[in-house]
Write a structure and sequence with these properties.
- This protein has 510 residues and is mostly helical.
- The protein has one domain (2-393): Sodium/glucose cotransporter (Up-down Bundle), CATH 1.20.1730.10.
- Helix content is 75%, strand content 0%.
- It contains 20 helices and no strands.
- It has helices at residues 2-19, 27-32, 39-50, 53-67, 72-100, 106-114, 117-150, 154-202, 206-214, 236-248, 254-261, 266-291, 303-306, 311-316, 321-359, 365-392, 398-422, 428-447, 459-480, 486-493.
- It is globular.
Length: 510
């Protein structure tokens, strides 16, 4: 049953990739699906790129263990800040200005918005470097689940996932990933609700599970009775940093923001906002809610020996074979959708913003698409090798890799991108300072972590601080650095002033 479900799932993914070849003949079609992607596909592409095995296995297990049922706040934050507000604040303006500036990637946006080739190249280098550890972390969450379900070697799992993702992304480009993301999203929605119900049932139902959680104490975390079943948990401050990193981070991640570039029309933005918010509420809220009950299985889990990544697989190991098959496909769907999004973002950025800009300035559309397809293979290969090295080394917490990656990327891009859409006063220098500050901070956190203040020794806290610091750095540095060229800025913001006729239900008119 497990194998039959997997084979059917893989067959559908590959068939969609082959079907979407006709949309992937030029750069606009390959990277953005011709900017004609509707609300359901865009919203599900956004949601499935957001949540992967890192969230389901790494974050849900680790933070559920640390904060109990209060970890659900991370899922609620993901829905409200990471989805609802992200779409409301960024969606429309991103779509309008990126089309006006004819930019298909985030570095290309910076290059055109500020008239700076070095800024474009710098952004592309940051994306390529810091997307790799995030991509490598995607595989790790699958290793334990595949081992539990099929008893196969982890390396086989990595190769299988990498090859299949490469096939449908290379064949169909963004449109193939969007359609597959929709299918994978449906699997994630159905899977997470079914699994939560099954796990809680195994502990006597929701009220019995909550009562059991309230009786657990851990003096190394908190001495207050019932803290793991409380509203804010044993450590509200560190929980807040988790919410900030995992929620606000999407505003500056290139693979997330690029989803707004491809939206079809105004109606798609309105519907997409609602759909992606509800999707995040169910999937992210469900993952963290499930993880919150991890301590009920403490008699089966040895966190000290096996790490936090063993918590969720242990919770699921007692389910029926059919439900375990559903879990495997759920996590595989989550990881492959995120992987496809990451390799699209990285290959398009490296081709359009680095190779075409630095090495092959006369590269035409066909050669750019070919280059992207080759780089997808290269990028997947590098991340697969890193995943295998990581698996055989002492690095066990996939949440740490994601924290470093998200902190560097979102810390570098969130503030410059957000302010550039709304303010005429943002300067090139402020973007550079934000890029350098966040990248150096997160690299230093990897190598000199014990020297950091206690609150910043966690890469999650450090990443959240990098994002918040950027929101201060950009306006402050912009006050004291040379003002941007007025003509360049006026041209960028002219797109917002174009007159558009709308139905009377939208605007009353004179």
């Amino acid at each position: 049953m497990k194998l039959i479900l997997l084979i059917l799932y893989f067959a559908v993914l590959i068939a969609i990739g082959i079907y979407c070849r006709k949309h992937a003949t030029d750069v606009n079609g390959f990277v953005l699906g011709g900017r004609s992607v509707g609300p359901w596909l865009t919203a599900f592409a956004y949601g499935t790129s957001y949540f992967s095995a890192v969230v389901f296995v790494g974050y849900a297990g680790q933070f559920g263990w640390k904060y109990g049922i209060a970890a659900t706040w991370a899922g609620i934050g993901n829905a409200i800040i990471g989805s609802l507000l992200a779409w409301a604040v960024l969606g429309r303006r991103t779509r309008i200005m990126t089309q006006h500036l004819d930019s298909a990637t985030m570095p290309q946006f910076f290059g055109e918005r500020f008239g700076s080739r070095p800024l474009k190249i710098g952004a592309s280098v940051i994306i390529f470097i810091f997307l790799i550890p995030y991509t490598a972390s995607l595989y790790n969450g699958l290793s334990r689940l595949f081992g539990m379900a099929f008893n196969i070697d982890y390396s086989v799992c990595i190769i299988l996932m990498a090859v299949l993702t490469a096939i449908y992304v290379i064949a169909g480009g963004y449109m193939a990933t969007a359609i597959n993301d929709f299918i994978q999203g449906i699997i994630m929605l159905g899977g997470i609700t079914t699994i939560i119900a099954a796990v809680l049932k195994s502990k006597g139902g929701f009220m019995a599970a909550l009562d059991g959680l309230a009786r657990i104490t851990d003096e190394t975390v908190a001495t207050t009775p019932g803290t793991f079943a409380s509203f804010f948990g044993p450590d509200p401050l560190n929980l807040l940093f988790v919410v900030i990193l995992t929620s606000l981070g999407t505003w500056g991640l290139p693979q997330m923001v690029q989803k707004f570039y491809a939206i079809k029309n105004e109606e798609s933005i309105k519907k997409g906002t609602i759909i992606s918010t509800l999707f995040a509420l169910v999937v992210a809220g469900g993952c963290y809610f499930l993880g919150g009950f991890g301590r009920l299985f403490s008699d089966q889990i040895d966190v000290a020996a096996n790490g936090f990544d063993s918590i969720i697989p242990t919770m699921l190991s007692g389910l029926s074979p059919l439900l375990i098959a559903l879990v495997v496909i759920l996590v595989l769907s989550a990881s492959m959708s995120t992987l496809s999004s990451l390799v699209m973002a990285s290959s398009s950025t490296l081709t359009i913003d680095f190779l075409k800009e630095v090495c092959f300035q006369k590269m035409d559309d066909k050669k750019q698409v070919l280059s992207m397809r080759i780089l997808i293979v290269v990028f997947i290969a590098i991340s697969s090798i890193l995943a295998l090295i990581q698996y055989k080394s002492s690095v066990t917490f996939i949440a740490q890799l994601m924290g470093v990656s998200w902190g560097a990327l979102a810390g570098s891009f969130l503030a410059p991108f957000l302010y550039s859409l709304y303010s005429r006063k943002v300067t090139k220098a402020s973007c550079w300072v934000c890029f350098i500050f966040s990248s150096v901070l997160m690299v230093a956190n990897i190598f000199f972590r014990p020297s950091f203040p206690v609150i910043m020794q966690s890469p999650i806290n450090c990443g959240a601080i990098a994002m918040l610091a950027g929101l201060v750095i950009v306006p402050v540095v912009s006050l004291f650095t040379p003002k941007p060229d007025k003509k360049l800025v006026d041209n960028a913001f002219a797109c917002y002033e174009k007159k558009t006729e709308v139905a009377q239900k939208t605007a009353l008119g004179k």
